[in-house]
Amino acid sequence: MNSSTSRVFLLVHGSWHGAWCWRRVRPFLHSAGFESHAVTLTGVGERRHLLSAQINLQTHVQDVLGVIDAEELTRIVLVGHSYGGMVITGVMGALQRQGRAGLVEQLVYLDAHTPRNGESWYDLMVPELADQRVQQGMTTGGGVFLPPPDANVFGLDGADRDWVNRRQTPQPFGVFQSKVTVDDGALHAMPRTYIDCTNPQLALLDVSRARVKADPSWRYHAMDIGHDPMVNAPEALAQLLIGAARG
To answer: Which residues in the chain show pLDDT less than 70?
Structure first.
């Protein structure tokens, strides 16, 4: 596989997760002839030892840019799950400012937040839920982290729930109110796909979900599955990702 001639998936996980969460999806991408790379963001997963109050959204944007540069990636399909939607939007903003936005050919938001310029994760949640999250981060997490929820909130049960619960790690709290910087017009002109996980549907994503449904420029797909389809529906998810890459 050659990133200069075929599209390459760059997979960005959501809160409390790590590159490990894509383990079941990547073989399906590879068998279809696609190269893929999965990032672990600073402070979580196997990088949990780096957790600190200094981590913010820009830290995670730099994590992804680092993979793009180290692997010399082009023709990228940039995929963000959940909080990862904040990250991939920030990555596009950084690439725009660097004159390198053309490295990314497709954006896929997997049950993810869809920020606009100047918005934070906090801004994209309904106020009562956002304030609950702040309170949780300041009390339980001491202003440093957000503790992981039980994976059953993602619609997982049995061995899948246990697998995710064992691997989840605290999420850096500093990312919660960090704001995205991006050229909204240029972002809007890019091919963008939204994959909406509807069973159960997370209320935390209501703002972004409504935003996508009101904008016909988005390609929209619904999956009758919970928030972590990379865990319990990897083949179906891979087919949607491959469809986005070929679209």
So the answer is: 1-5
Cβ-in-10-Å burial (0-12, 13-18, 19+) of 129 comes to middle
Q: Select which of 15, 36, 82, 178 is catalytic.
A: 82
The whole model's pTM is what? 0.96
Nearest to 81 by CA among 245, 242, 237: 237
Helices 57-70 and 84-97, packing angle to 10 deg: 60
Instruction: List phi, psi (to 5°) of 57.
Output: -60, -40
Please tell me the predicted confidence (pLDDT) of residue 2.
Answer: 38
Distance, in Å, from the CA atom of 233 to the CA atom of 141, rounded to the nearest integer, reads: 32
Mapped onto helix, strand or coil, the DSSP state of residue 197 is strand
User: For the chain, which domains are there?
Assistant: 8-246 (3.40.50.1820)
Query: Would you put residue 45 in left (φ > 0), alpha (ψ -120 to 50) or beta?
Result: left
From the number of C-beta atoms within 10 Å of its C-beta (0-12, 13-18, 19+), residue 177 rates as middle
**Cβ–Cβ contacts within 10 Å for residue 90, how many?**
25
The whole-angstrom separation of Cα 145 and Cα 50 is 12
| Residue 4: active-site member | no
